[in-house]
Fold this protein.
Amino acid sequence: MQQLYKVTDWLDRVDRLQEDAKEMIKEAEEEIHNKALRCFYPKKCCSSNRVGERISESAKRKPADLVIQMPVPKTFGLDSKLEDIWRWIEDPSVEIIGLYGMGGVGKTTLLRKIYNKICEKSDYVVIFVERSEQDPVKAAKEAICKKIEIPREDWINKGEAINKAIWNTLRKEKFALMLDGVGGQWQHLLLEEIGVHLNGNGNGSKVIFTTRSKEVCDRMKAKTIEVECLPPETALQLFEFCVGEDALNANWEIPMLAKELADVCNGLPLLLTTIGRAMASKTKPGNWKRAIEKLRTQPSTFPDVEASVFSVLKISYDSLNTDSLRNCFCAFRCSQELII
């Protein structure tokens, strides 16, 4: 039997605390002795309590919360997919789950909903790795080390030894590793590079990730689900929620114009949210009619569209493997009157 890294680290920290405690006790004895002497001389007597303050400060420290929920906005159309994924999470034969779809379609939001539900209803050690365009393997390793309390200076400098420490810790745990934004370079072997081994552990551990590529899901040997654009009725619900009742009730024409503007967004949640928030202060029908025309003919000039939406769609476009696929992507989006 070999102690896990987090056990040896915990024992080291206990030793350090014990040394601190011995030092504080010694200081306290000296302080009590000095106070007793000073009290024979009233002019020198004081109420200093340095050691007591140090002990009080130490007692206030407490560990971080084990479960920290992630903020998730109100969602539309994701509940059925969440139920499907939850059935896979409860199935011990399913180890890796992939959520794929184009940029802006709601994959990260769905992953965060899964994270919150796992935290609420199960005994998993949950590790969430935020999207990283720089070095996703490094980001994943850092998030895992933080969760299992391996000090930063150790995981940065020890390389392969840390992979073994991660493996020795996680193989004893029922964990859910959640990776947001897995790129084209990811494959099943990269899990082993960060010390994550699933095959044969038999304890129900999961790896759940989002990606824009179905090919990545196949390489990761994942159970997959596609996150798609919203159907018209659900898209309108999301759009009206973002606009708000004040604008919708300002004029009898606006609800009809809102439906027309939502239709132009073609069910893409990121675009519906961006446009809906931009229209929340528009209470005159003329503003809505101009917005519809602008979104149809010059979408890049619409407030926040280029910064919030086009940059996301461009990543989907750039990730396609061939010019033929990129041309099809442009033709598809142009046919829906969203030009990139």
User: Anything to note?
Assistant: The radius of gyration is 28 Å. Residues 5-38 form the longest helix (34 residues). The chain has three domains: 5-60, 79-226, 232-335.
